[in-house]
Every structure is written in structure tokens, then in C-alpha cells.
Amino acid sequence: MAKQAPSGSDALGPLAEEIHACRRCPRLVEWREERAADPPRRYRGESYWARPLDGFGDPAARVAIVGLAPAAHGANRTGRMFTGDRSGEWLYAALHRAGFANRPASSRRDDGLRLDGAYVTAVVRCAPPANKPTPQERDACLPYLERELTLLASCRTIVALGSFAWDGSLRALRALGMEVPTPRPRFGHGSEATVGEWGLLGCYHPSQQNTFTGRLTEPMLDDVLGRARELGERSG
Prior knowledge:
6-stranded mixed β-sheet; disordered N terminus; 6 strands; 11% strand; Uracil-DNA Glycosylase, subunit E; alpha/beta
């Protein structure tokens, strides 16, 4: 009898272990470990994750939310994407309002938070200096996103948080054999594009520079997640 291929749920675990062990990018390895060794005073005494981050969420998700990279004292500390900083506070509160999360806050990998219908990930898996990965670091990390999207068998909708995530998502979809439209879809808040069998939505990143200035408001974020749910349900 032929051996059955692992399901997405079964295969995401081994992929996560592979991601955690990655040391492909020397600059990022050095940076993530240096930040953990010399944290700000408010985090001294905490044990940092200080490894690359796998995605987090529902293996049966219909919506994937893609960010840029972990924050040095956010996810690099807590071990979960978008957890431990203000961006994560905004994102998980919005996911809760949209019915994707069982609670409005995320603190650590073992805090009991569950996502239903959504999966949170990023283009780059290590915290980069100044939040700016190089093109080479992006390209070294993209295969992890490609494999996650492949394993999320029910997912056909991506929310890209920021222009870097929009570009990375387009690159990942193209690598998976999807035809990217010409002219290439441009990022904007509320932008929509169809790439093969996938729907792509743009959303301003919930960084403090956007939320403190009012460039991104809670209703704006809620609208994008509501649209993502609508598209995800249609794809089912």
C-alpha cells in the first residue's frame, strides 16, 4: 500500500522544527541572539526565544495573514508571531473582533490563544536590524512561506500587512506556479488582487508609526479582516 502524504496539520509541525533550526543568514542569527543577550531593562531576566519563528494558527485556515518579520523584543522574545509588542496587540485584538481568535491578547506560545480560520506568519523568520531584511535574506526565507501556503490546503486568501509582505506574498505565489498579473499589482491599504487561485488583500502594517499617527485605525483594520473572511468563505 502506498504511503499517504502527511496532511497540512501533520506536516506543519516538522516544518516548524526545520524553521526553528535555521541559520541560513549570519547577520540575522547574530542580531537575534545579540538582542536576546542584552535586552532592554523592562525585559531583563526573561528567557528569549531567539530563534526563527514558524507561523501560528489554524491548519484549516482559510485566511493567511503575512507580516514582515519578528520584532527583536516582540516575537523574538516570546516565540510567537506578532506577540509581545504593540503591533501584535493591535493585530490579535482585531482578530478577536473578527471572530478569528478566542481571546483578544497574545502573550506567549503557551498562553492558550487559539485561532479559528486564520494563520499568522511572515516573509522573514528572524528579527532583522532596523526591521529591514536584505533582498538576499528575504529570498533565503521565502521557501518557508511557500511551503506553509502549500500546507494550508483550505487557504486561498492572504492579507499582506505592509508593502514588504505584499511583495513577498506575490513572490511566494509566483514560486508556487501562480501567474502574477501584468502590470504587477501595487500595494495599498484595501488593495485587492487575484493571483491564480489566490486572493490578495493589502493592509497597512499595525506598527506604531501607523497606529499612533492615525494612518491605520481599528475600523480600517476591521474592514480588511472582514473582507478577508468574506473571500475566505467564498473560496470554500
